[in-house]
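It would be a great kindness if you could assist me with a short task in structural biology. The matter concerns a single protein, recorded as an amino acid sequence and a row of C-alpha cells. The record follows directly beneath this note:
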Amino acid sequence: MRCLTEAKETVSPTASSDSVDLGRGEFAPLGVGQFASPGLVGRLLNWSSRELPSSQTPISEEEKQQILDKLQPGDIVLTYASHRPNLGHLEYLATGSHYTHCALYEGYGRIIETLGDQVLRSPLVERLEGTIKVAVVRPPYKSFRDRGRVIQAAKDMVGRPYDYKFDNSDDSELYCSELIEVAMKKVDPDLEVPDAHFLGREITAPDAFQDMKGAKLIHDGRSNYWANQRHQWPLFLGAAVGAGVGAAVGGPLAGILAAAVGFEGTLAAKRLFG
C-alpha cells in the first residue's frame, strides 16, 4: 500500500525536478502562484482568496490515504477550501459549482493546474492539507493511452497565463477547469464537458467534470455550497449581531456598516484567541 509519507518523498523537489522547463529558457516553479492581474478581476480574486477561520475539521490522514490509493493518472481532483469561503461564494454565484478548484493528476504524486497567474505542475500533497473537501473524478477516456495523451497536452500548456476573462473561445490563457477541458478536447473531441452560463458567457465549472456522460466519481468529498456555510457560523453571527445593533441605533445604513465591523471584529478575535 502506498502511504502518505512515501508520496511526500516522491514529490520532494530535487536539483533537477523542482522546476519545469518550458522550452523557452524559462521555468515555472512547482506549486507557486498568486493572482497577478492588476485589474478588477485579479483584485477580486485575491481578496476572495484571503483565509478566514473555519469550524470544519481538517482533512484526515485516513481520507488522504483513501484518495492516494484510488488515484490514477488522468483523474481530476476537485477541491473546496472552507478557509477561503469567499471563493466559494463567487464560484457558486457564477457557475453553481460546489467545488472551487480542479487539477489533473499527472501521476507520481504530481498534479497539473492553473494556480495564481499561470499553469503549473504541483505536488499533490500540498493540496491535501487543511480544512478542505476533495472529490476525484475519472473521465470516460476511451483508452489508457488517451489518459497519457491528455496529461501530455496539459503539460504542454505549462506556463500559459491565467485567464482573467474566463473566455472559453481562446486557449492562449486558461483558468483551472478550462485547462483540463482544453487538454481533453485536444485528444478526444467527443469528451463533452457541460458548460455553465454567466452573463451571457459559457464557463466550465469544476463540478462539470462530475456531470460528464460516463464519468465516475472515485472519491466523494460531499461538498455542498449551502452545507458549507455552517463552517463560517461565528463570522455570520458576528455580522448579524453588528447589523442588529447598528440598525437599532442608527438605521439601515448604520446596520450595514456595523455588520462589516461585526464580521471583521469576529475575524480579528478568532485570529487572536483561536
